[in-house]
Amino acid sequence: MTEDSAAQGTTYASAGVDVEAGDRAVELMKAAVSATHGPNVVGDFGGFAGLFDVSMLKDYERPQLAASTDGVGTKVAIAQALDIHHTIGFDLVGMVVDDIVVCGATPLIMTDYIACGRVVPERIADIVRGIAEACASAGVALVGGETAEHPGLLGVDEYDVAGAATGVVEASRVLGAHRVSAGDVLVGLPSSGLHSNGYSLVRRIIADAGWGLDREVPEFGRTLGEEILVPTTVYSGPLLELLAAQPDAVHAMSHVTGGGLSANIARVLPQGLLATMCRSTWTVPAVFDVLGELGSVPRIDRERTWNLGVGMVLVVDRESVDAVLAAVDGAWVLGEVTADDRALAGDEYYVQGAKGVDGGAAILLD
């Protein structure tokens, strides 16, 4: 410690927190956040809490709020290594908001939280700009957030992001297992790639193989880093349009995140029913095959970790399948729901119940 610093005493800045940098970051993100605000957002940007006028709830017979919170996981390490930060916001919004839409709810508001080792205003603004753009695509207002500087806990160029959202649905329109019956059809929606799950496995594979993020991969037509940073698809917009246009077509939805396809489908089926999905109905994107082969990852582990190209599954009334396929780009028939006679229960790919839900079962077949 120099004589001058001793004379000044210990300040917040000398402890590693730059309040002025935080203020600059807020100014840089202000326009992007405000662009998500419609007439229901009350008050100016920067309040202690975001206010949202919910007078429209008076038109509901029995409104039910839907809430979700999530993060992006270790995908942020890829963004940090590449110094590309504006896409991670789409990952965050997709992980949070699409968990609300699956129950039939319309997302209304979202907040975000960014913890970092050091506030770099341009970096924070890039992250929030991505969050705001994704919120706009989902029709949700970004009404608040927090950026916290944690020197000594996180490295100077490290950060983590999390978010929470709230939506609303009429009680009589809630989607879920109570609507599903044998004979329903499973419709798959394509993912944009890895989305935001299984990155601990991804990072371990490429580290063990000694691959750099700048490695050109012929199967991808771009670098490894560019491929695995592709942002999560945000499904909310087109799915809400589908529900508005065909309110009785969809009985349940499953957002394929951690745990893979079968585990997430099993969550939205009632006991006694089985979702049978056929691998032959879609082509697994190259990123999953390349990484799986590079790491000699067993097929069962791939299918219980990654989405393998299926980002969302709709459980659809059989009479409405053609209309749903026509309404949603890229959709295809993935399988069907039948009574579960337990004949396949001994198969290692058979999954019954998941994530604490003692529901139906699901299996992937060739």
Please describe what this structure looks like.
This protein has 366 residues and is an alpha+beta fold. It has a 7-stranded mixed beta sheet with strand order 10-12-7-13-11-15-14, with helices on both faces. Strand 1 and strand 2 form a beta hairpin. It is globular, with a radius of gyration of 22 Å. The model has no long low-confidence stretch (mean pLDDT 92). It is found in: Cytoplasm.
Let me know the number of strands: 15
Low confidence ranges: none
- State which percent range the strand residues make up: 25-35%
Shape type = globular
Span from first to last CA?
68 Å
Mean pLDDT: 92
Radius of gyration: 22 Å
Oligomer: single chain
Number of helices: 12
Strand order of the largest sheet: 10-12-7-13-11-15-14
Listing every helix as H and every strand as E from the N terminus to the C terminus, the arrangement reads HHEEEHHEHEEEHEEHHEHEHHEHEEE
Assign the structural class, choosing from mainly alpha, mainly beta, alpha/beta, alpha+beta, or little secondary structure.
Answer: alpha+beta
Helical proportion? 25-40%
Largest sheet, in brief, is:
7 strands, mixed
Quick rundown:
The protein has 366 residues and is α+β, with helices and mostly antiparallel strands. 32% of the residues lie in helices and 26% in strands. The strands form four sheets. Strands 10-12-7-13-11-15-14 form a seven-stranded mixed sheet, sandwiched between helices. The protein has a four-stranded mixed sheet with strand order 3-6-4-5, with helices on one face. It has a two-stranded antiparallel sheet with strand order 1-2.
